[in-house]
Every structure is written in C-alpha cells, then in structure tokens.
Amino acid sequence: MKTPRYGSCSTNSACGCFHMVGTNDDAGVCGFLWPTCYRLVPCNSSGKPCQSNTICVRHPECDDRPLCYPVEMIDQTMCPPMQDMINSKWKQHGITAVGGNGLGNGLNQLFYPLGISVDDKKTIYIADPGNHRIIEWKYDSKNGQVIAGGNGQGNRNDQLNAPEDVIFDKNNNSLIICDRRNRRVVRWFHQNQIKQQILISDISSGGFGNG
C-alpha cells in the first residue's frame, strides 16, 4: 500500500512522504517537510533538469509545479525509516506468558492482575487482587500456584485483601506484598521460614485509600 502524500514515513515527525514525478504516485521519498519554499526550483525550469544533488518531487504546499528537492533533506540521518524503529529490537507480536484463559480463580486464570516481579529463574510473581492472592508462575508453565493468600478476602495472617503489587526479595527469600485494602505491606516468607511479617500497617480510615 502506497504512503499518502506527506504521510508518516520516519521516526522523525518532521519528515513525510513526497511523491516522485513520473511514478503515478506509486513511489516516493521520505524527506523533511518544511524546506524553505522559495529556495526550491521547479523541475525542468529554463529547459534544464534538476541538478544531481536534487530529485524531482511534488510538493503542492510550496508550488503546484514539481520541484527539485535537495537530496540532503531525504538523508536517513535526518529522517530515520520507521521500519528501523519497528523491527530493530522487538517482534511485532506478543505471546501470553501468564493467564489468558478468561477471568476467574483457576490456577490458569487471573482476575484483574496488577503488579508483577520476576526472579533470576524467570519465575513471575503476580498480584491477583480480584482473587486476593499472589500467584507464582514458573517459566513456560501452563498453570500457576498460589503462594500467598488465596484463603478468601480478609485480614488474617493467611489472607490478603486486593493485593496490588509484589516484589521478590532474593536476599531474604521472601515476597513483599502491598496488601491494599488491608492498608498494610506484608513480608511473606518461604514455607520453611516464618509465615508472615507485617512491615507497614495503617488500620485507620486514611490508609492508602478508601478502596
């Protein structure tokens, strides 16, 4: 599909597409959109073609006649191609790493997930506030496992209430959880350690919010 006249063609928003003369608008060049118009000479003026350092394009914003456009203004240094931005580092499609099986409380489901943390083994820890739990999802697994909360909504030491963020603390082999609706931050240890430690708590009506 051809790019429309002055259409986006570069990572530089000051550049656009100029259609070349004699190509039926099927080909163009990507150049700087705001050259000084009076400096652009019409193509074939005085019976002479454009000089070697220019190219004949249509630029009706400056003149209805085709104009000799400076080649230096279509240089990729000035107008980097959009393709470079799109494909140089990232593929243009993603893959589902966690969940993707509808809203729910199954071990292959999440309920409005929020914060995540990733450890050195590529395991993802997900705050799953709608299910009042933290899920551990090992790399390339089809299902996760509940490692904190998951015992209903509440403020007991084995419960969470809409947790919204989680951090994996490698040095202490524990999770630090923002337990939003309980207005507290909790450290949750591995099974062979102490079960839970409240780091910060605000049981007043102020808290982190009224949610």
Automatic annotation (TrEMBL):
Residue ranges of coiled coil: none
Highest classification ranks of the organism: Eukaryota, Metazoa, Spiralia, Gnathifera, Rotifera
Domain of life: Eukaryota
An example Gene Ontology molecular-function term: zinc ion binding
Protein name as annotated: NHL repeat containing protein
Gene3D superfamilies in the cross-refs: TolB, C-terminal domain
Gene source species: Adineta steineri
